Amino acid sequence: MHIVHVVGARPNFMKAAPVFQALARHDCVRQTLVHTGQHYDFNMSDVFFQQLAMPAPDVNLEVGSGTHAQQTSQIIARFEPVILDLKPDWVAVYGDVNSTVAAALVCAKLLVPVAHVEAGLRSFDRTMPEEINRLLTDQISDLLFTPSEDGDRNLEKEGIAPEKVHLVGNVMIDSLVRLLPVATEQAPRNLPERYVLVTLHRPSNVDDIGWLKSLIDTFQEVSRDVPVLFPVHPRTRARMAEAGIKCGDSGSNLRILDPASYLEFLALQSHAAVVITDSGGIQEETTFLDVPCLTVRENTERPITVSMGTNTLVGRDILRLRSELESVLAGKTKRGVVPPLWDGHAAERIAQVILQPRSGRLTAQSSQRLSAVTSG
Ligand code: UD1
To answer: pLDDT by residue (tens digit) across 155-165?
Structure first.
């Protein structure tokens, strides 16, 4: 069986690695790794491949940055010939980034079966580009692997046939479970005893300069009492530079850092007093690590991290952010539990499902379509 994995952006890599490794244990499987090139900086991409022990991509589409339409259409145009050439049995796509929906669309049109890892998550906020990517990818996937039961319920409401949906748990936690001991061993030596960790990159937070400025001002003020560590995403760095935002107020201890590697960021999270973020994955990782998380968003596609985990949504409300932060730093922390199946074995369950014998219907349709397209 030939399986093509498509990755493109930073949060894809820690999800694809365990699935790739679980499938590699089966002799009947041949795998090809395609990188779309959506993320291309060393510290947004290559370092993750190294630390996750992923082979270098077999194909790099090198699409780079652009508007959503440019990026998505470039991936579609460059990925189609790859699929026509490789004629895989399955294509695995991950998460909710532009690379995910673009690759899934190419496959759906060629009748090549698609497996979507991390299906069913919904923020119910269509102003988020990722929500559009999630909705569309799930509609055109043939196998949908969900991390939690809310995902199954969302898919049922959208009319997805239940036999396509498999609750397997959280693959990102597989990578965390495997590499947390290494991350702890290699943790940066010069960390403060106690600190706040911040990440921000969503357009809703960083493209609104007034709001971004008020967040940074808040972090500077907080950092007079507790150091604040802020590894900055390239998009955020660009916005800060454009707006002339500086972070060197006297007496403050806001440390602006380059984007962290996977191991470095795991170590930073696991020792943090609290994490402030707008990332999806970090809401899950902090829940697993039992570290309080304040999410600067009005909604989340990962409600289980709020209902069961350590996550609190503070919305776009500086006063709420400050008061929640004060509570956490005063020791009033929300305790959580780890959701079911976030146990380090999700990828093995995915491999089992993909390798299940199926009727040859999908494959027959797919080869017919692929030969029709290639012959003319
Ligand atoms: C993308 C995903 C988002 C994910 C995030 C993780 C979509 C719609 N968004 O957002 O869901 O949470 O990745 O980072 O797919 N840039 C660099 N170097 C890089 C990559 C990007 O400098 O290696 C800069 C470019 O200026 C680019 C900007 O960052 O324009 C944004 O990158 P892009 O991939 O468009 O979106 P992200 O904000 O990273």
So the answer is: 999 999 999 99
